[in-house]
Structures are given as structure tokens and as C-alpha cells.
Amino acid sequence: TDEERIAVVTACRHGSRPETYGDECACDVDVTVSTEDGVIMGQDFTVTISLTNTSSECRSLTLLVQAVVMYYTGVVKGTFKRDKHEVLLEPHKGRPSGSRPQASGSRPQASGLGH
């Protein structure tokens, strides 16, 4: 699956031979991930992912968005939001996408990803 392939590539990039899979990314789609300033623990927040196709051809993407709970040490506690989206970008066009994970108490809840 796409998820398994990404997991293997990510693991290799952090291992003793990070050059194993090289850099296969197409450089004609710009991806920008941002959130508002001042996110407070336990409060809702919005993540915006902007995609821009800078090529003269259509591009088809699989966008995997994952949000995790992490300790201050960098150790991941668990995943509370995971979305997969198929996106078709027209030539020289962009598309923003917003995700609004909601955390409540010690058990985070997540809502859908809007466009």
C-alpha cells in the first residue's frame, strides 16, 4: 500500500543508509503546511496544506495527512488524526486544504478534512 511504502522510505531515510531510495519527488508541485500562531494544548487548531502545480501538465497526488500526540522528548504517544486524499492539480493551479483536529482531555477527537 501507499502507507507501507512511505513507512519503509521514511525508516530508510532515518537509518544508516539514507541514500537508499534517493530523492524521487517531482519538483514541480509546491507543498506548504502551516497552522495559526499560538496553538494551545487541548484547544482546536487548523492545519492548512496548500498545493501548487508549477508544471504545464496535470499532476495526480496522494496526500497522506497524519497528526500525532508527542511527548516533549519527541517520542510519539499515538496517532489521533489520519486522512488520505486523492488530488488532481491542473497545470499552473493551486489548491488549499484545511484540517481541524480537535483535542479534548486526554483522549483526542478529530474532525474531517475540508477543502
UniProtKB/TrEMBL annotation:
Pfam families: Transglut_C. It is an enzyme of class 2 (transferase). Residues 38-93 form the Transglutaminase C-terminal domain. The keyword rRNA-binding does not apply. GO terms for molecular function: protein-glutamine gamma-glutamyltransferase activity. Residues 90-115 are annotated as: Disordered. Residues 99-109 have a biased composition (Polar residues). The keyword Methyltransferase does not apply. Its EC number is 2.3.2.13. InterPro entries: Ig-like_fold (IPR013783), Transglutaminase (IPR050779), Transglutaminase_C (IPR008958), Transglutaminase_C_sf (IPR036238). Keywords: Acyltransferase, Transferase. PANTHER family: PROTEIN-GLUTAMINE GAMMA-GLUTAMYLTRANSFERASE, PROTEIN-GLUTAMINE GAMMA-GLUTAMYLTRANSFERASE K. This is protein-glutamine gamma-glutamyltransferase. It comes from Chiloscyllium punctatum (Brownbanded bambooshark). The lineage of its organism: Eukaryota, Metazoa, Chordata, Craniata, Vertebrata.
